[in-house]
Design brief:
Length: 374
């Protein structure tokens, strides 16, 4: 098995590099031991990143070990290239697949055309040949790839997880380092269980306060994007923190992390806590028995002792103000469009704005900037 170093033409055996970092098996034991030995106080991102570096390469690239690789029917071309090169999937036990991108996940839904049908059938054939768990058509476990990961207990704190889809950041809600990759990168992970990456900077976004009634997780992330801009997260992994985030359910945290890429971020993450652990316990692929206790010890330690000084950027938001601003924007336009039909949103917006003077000031500035009459 070989991989190609960025900027180099000659291949190098991946076995030699992986021998330097023996993390193929028993990841929770290895990581727990490293945490005990170092007692490191770093960001969640830094803790995960540093434990997955297999080797350093040219141009500030590092070779990262990948704990989970999720596939969908769009991955069939990578399977084809792998087969032509005479190689197989290095760790089929860490690779999982579902059909969700071009075919509906509703039970009984047919493929829309012959091309999609061929892709789905090809995925089933390749996964069968490679011994990969496949949540295929007719499997009750099948669903959207970024939902079945958490549902099945495949998405765990402290792991690196990749998928050929931009919204892979969703899994960061569980304290994982998760990001989307391209087709050639999918092939590289299949062949080596590693991936060349450049280390992003870390942006901590702390959201404090209780969300007003009617304001939800999507309003929060939209408020964050409105504050930092559509490119505000470029080159960064975003760590979300604060009482507002901690009060969210796992579904809500997944929403926030999912939309991190809408701000250009490489990944979005939330430190694992009791809400995370309660969600994962008992899931089909989650650790069980003694393994659960060891994993829990590691997860709790990994989420503690975070050093704020290691951040590249820090942003604080008041959810009672930021969230209501997005709520007001959204409902204002809907009210303006439909007020002739007795839409109740305008009255709700006015009542909510009246409670938050800071939000009122920013809301009025928004209306003025866009030339909208109050």
């Amino acid at each position: 098995m070989h991989f190609v170093t960025p900027g180099a033409r000659g291949p190098a055996p991946v076995e030699k590099l992986q021998a330097k970092k023996k993390i193929d098996d028993g990841w929770y034991n290895v990581y727990h031991q490293r945490m005990v030995e170092t007692g490191a106080r770093r960001t969640i991102f830094e803790k995960i990143w540093s434990r997955h570096v297999v080797a350093e390469g040219p141009g500030a690239h590092v070779l990262l070990y990948i704990d989970r690789h999720l596939l969908h029917e769009g991955s069939t071309s990578a399977f084809g290239r792998l087969a032509k090169s005479g190689r197989g999937v290095r760790r089929p036990d860490l690779t999982f697949a579902t059909a969700d991108h071009y075919v509906l996940t509703t039970p009984g839904s047919p493929a829309p055309d012959a091309e999609v049908r061929s892709m789905v059938e090809s995925l089933g054939q390749h996964t069968g040949q490679q011994g990969i768990v496949y949540f295929g058509v007719g499997d009750a476990r099948r669903g959207i790839v970024h939902i079945i990961g958490p549902e099945q207990g495949l998405t765990l704190p402290g792991i690196t997880l990749v998928c050929g889809d931009s919204h892979t950041a969703t899994h960061g809600a569980f304290g994982a380092l998760a990001f989307g990759i391209g087709s050639t990168e999918v092939e590289h992970v299949m062949a080596t269980q590693t991936l060349w990456q450049k280390k992003p900077k870390v942006l901590r976004i702390t959201v404090e306060g209780r969300l007003p009634d009617g304001v939800n997780a999507k309003d929060v992330i939209l408020a964050i994007i409105a504050r930092i801009g559509a490119g505000g997260g470029v080159g960064h992994a975003v760590e979300y923190a604060g009482s507002t985030i901690r009060a969210m359910s796992m579904d809500e945290r997944m929403t926030v992390c999912n939309m991190s890429i809408e701000a250009g971020a490489r990944a979005g993450m939330v430190a694992p806590d009791e809400t995370t652990f309660a969600y994962l316990q008992g899931r089909p692929f989650a650790p069980r028995g003694d393994a659960w206790g060891k994993a829990l010890t590691y997860w709790e330690m990994a989420a503690s002792m975070v050093l704020r000084g290691a951040l590249d950027a820090d942003l604080f938001l008041d959810s009672s103000v930021e969230g209501i601003l997005i709520y007001a924007k959204f409902h204002h336009f809907h009210a303006e469009t439909e007020k002739q039909s007795g839409n109740p949103f305008m009255g709700q917006t006015a009542a909510l704005i009246a409670k938050y003077p800071a939000a009122k000031t920013r809301y009025e500035a928004f209306l003025k900037n866009f030339g909208v009459a109050k």
